[in-house]
Predict the 3D structure of the following.
Amino acid sequence: MQTGKPSAIQMINKWKRLCLVLLLLFSLFFTTGCWNKIEVNNTVEAEGLVFDLEGDQPSFSVQLAQASGPDQSGSSQSTKPVNISGTGRTFTEAARKVMVSLPRLPLWAHAGVTLIGEDLANQDMGRVADFIGRNRHVRKTSLLFITKGVSGKECLEAEVPMEAYSLPGLRKLIRIQENQLGIYMPITIDQFLEGLAIPGLQPAVPQVTIQEIEGKKVLKLDGTAVFKDRKMVGSLDETESQGYRFLSPTMVTGGLIIIPSPLDNVTDSKKVVSIELTRSQATVSPEIEENKLKNMKIHIEAEGNFYEQTFEGDILDRETINKMNVLIGEQIKQAITASITKAQLLDSDIFGWGRSIYRKNPDLWSQIEDDWADIFPGVKTEITVNFEIRRTYLLDKSFEFKE
Amino acid sequence: MRYKRGNKQANLPLSTSELIAKPISKQLQENIDDLHRLLERCTDAVFKEFTFGPNRENKGLVIFFDGLVDKTQIEVHLLKSLMLELNMRNDDSFPWPKDEVFKLVYESIVSSAEVKTLDNLQDLCHSISSGDTVLLIDGYNTALVAGTRSWQTRSIQSPENEVVVRGPREAFTETLRFNTALLRRRLKSANFKIENFVLGRITKTDVVLCYIDGIAAEGLVTEVKQRLGKIDIDGILDTGYLEEFLEDNHYTIFSQMEYTEKPDRVCGHLLEGQVCIMVDGSPIALIAPTSFPRFWIASEDYYERYVVGSLFRIMRFVAFLISLLLPSLFVAAITYHQEMIPPPLYITIAATREGIPFPAFVEALLLELTFELLREAGIRLPRAIGPAISIVGALIIGDAAVKAGLVSTPMVVVVAFTGIASFIIPSYNGGIVVRIARFGFLISAGFLGLFGIMIALLIMLIHMSNLNSFGLPYLSPIAPFDLGEMSDIIVRRPWFLNTMRPQMKGMKNADRQAKRNSNDK
């Protein structure tokens, strides 16, 4: 009896425990509560986020993708984007104000493009930095653009040819542009925030403007916005943007370079040679002498392919090719110098020279950090370019016309 | 019990259960009475009484079950020898020893190839039930058994479930002797042992345990024998009965034994030190021990060149993951982790889901259930109706449901893809596990997203690592990890590098090539 009784209690306890575990497991299904569970039908995909200032009020607009019903899904009909905006005292409030007219949850995580109005950029990017940096729904690899001459909201009305949604179209645009033409460099939110936070580095962001083509408003890349601390202070033009791109610490691939004819007897400015850039790598190292910054030594190692000549004459011999290599080097140098001059004029270290000084000599940087704004405009540079033409594509000689 | 009591009320001298334990009597008439009582209402039992010998002074009885025997053999080897040829030689050169008739009959008259004796009714009944013919002679308490087994059988055909492109196409049949012969033909070694057991109180089913002596671990063989010996059941109709008795862990969805209908596959396993259990009346052989990763090994991998075999194996592994996880991953992604889906794909999915009344989880569950339903119906339906079901299934689910806006097309694609992937798992019992587990994953994904899938995966892995099959850890060689054996699990090791057998506890002879052991001929 006495031995049987505890075991019976144990049995009951065992059953109780088992039931309790099962009950707990079962209740797990209902307690998920899941604030992040959301059915697809209650969502809408955000294609791009736009931050503006309306007067002094933060304004937030979002481009939404219209998902067509099942009966239309078969045909790829052009679907029009839906643009919705809201204003508030903060960007968060503005963004949530969108909900007064939108019955669905916009999924910002899909927004590949973030557009910042020029007004906001001119005033203070600090007003939006925390929002785009902290909010987990904002994709940190989203590409950043600044408007030029128009507000962000206006840009939403414009379109990108061939693209159903203009903002993701912009993303494709800058990627292909960079590969084919090599002028503007895309920048992600992450990189931009880095530029705002890290001493000795300023962000530069490609700009977007509206162009009228046959009565249609079309978006177009135009210039690179240069920031000083939190404000946009100026803008680089095409050549300067190209120079800025050459100075990028990462290897750049793709681009086009036009050089004058290498032949001495041809001096017509219309007779030029097109060179396709395949890759270019910049090495920027500060030269320090006696604990003082002497100059910035910039070396570009680049190569490319002979693409086109617009005049007669055989230029594809070793000697002329070497000559062309030098000419291309000069062309690159010019672009780089132009961008450095502009940056120094605007007193904005978009190349991150301060950071490279810090990396090379942290002691020196701690001495000059506070005066860097004064020192930067006067920094001297020594630029060397080594360019090699590698291929000539289908014709191995210059085209020979019949007499 | 009731029958027993009934018999007693009828005031019979012995109950059938007591009767069957009786030794064979010297009096033929008593034996005949006993047998008639034992076999009353057995209309297929044939009793043939006859006389033979000089002056027809010896009485004999031939007893067999009609349909299980080759009557020609009985006629030629028993009746003709005794009744006709004996009389023809009845001269002086052939003395008739009156006292040793049985010995004479056993040694020089019955010309069957397979002859033995027995002395009790129980064995007698077992013998005739097995298709042998029993000869009783008046005055002797020993019965003569002539092997005359011959019945209508299915001939050896190509396997129905394990179809191969390259490799042997023979499959086991329901007759145990044919099956062991198929194995013996491939393993021409005296070390290939076939041990016999009779299980089932009523069915008296022959069960054999096959292994290669010297390769299979002794501990394993004794363990299997011990477990077989403990089985006490009224009947064994298929190896499936044995599987549940022999397996180590009963409360699990994972089967811890493999089965096959292909003799070449059995031989492959025997050569790797595993044992095989076959049952008379079942064309399926059980193979033990096994571990989970072995379920995605097909015998064909070893017949095809190693590159092809390896690629198939990798593909199978991927398909296994797809069929286990794809629906749950899809549901988790579109209900919790929308940011994981690339934007253009998300638009497409959102467009097709526009106006679908069910949550994604319910939709997936419904479609999966329908798929399982169709699959099961496809197996059970009479062959003539089979195509009709597939047409109805395809039309209703593939087309009408989507058109009616009940389910979305991506979900149909996901479920169909999962279904296709699940068919790639070579063993059926390995595939069933995946089918069951898939629902568990789906539910956990529906409630907890990727986190839930992770939890379910962990639970499954913890459970699996707790299992073992005759001492072999169920996840080996993944856990405990063994690189040498992994090279024959994820990919197929080329034969020229395949010098070692998979290691199992207690295995003595691990070399496959070069170093020859005297036991391994």
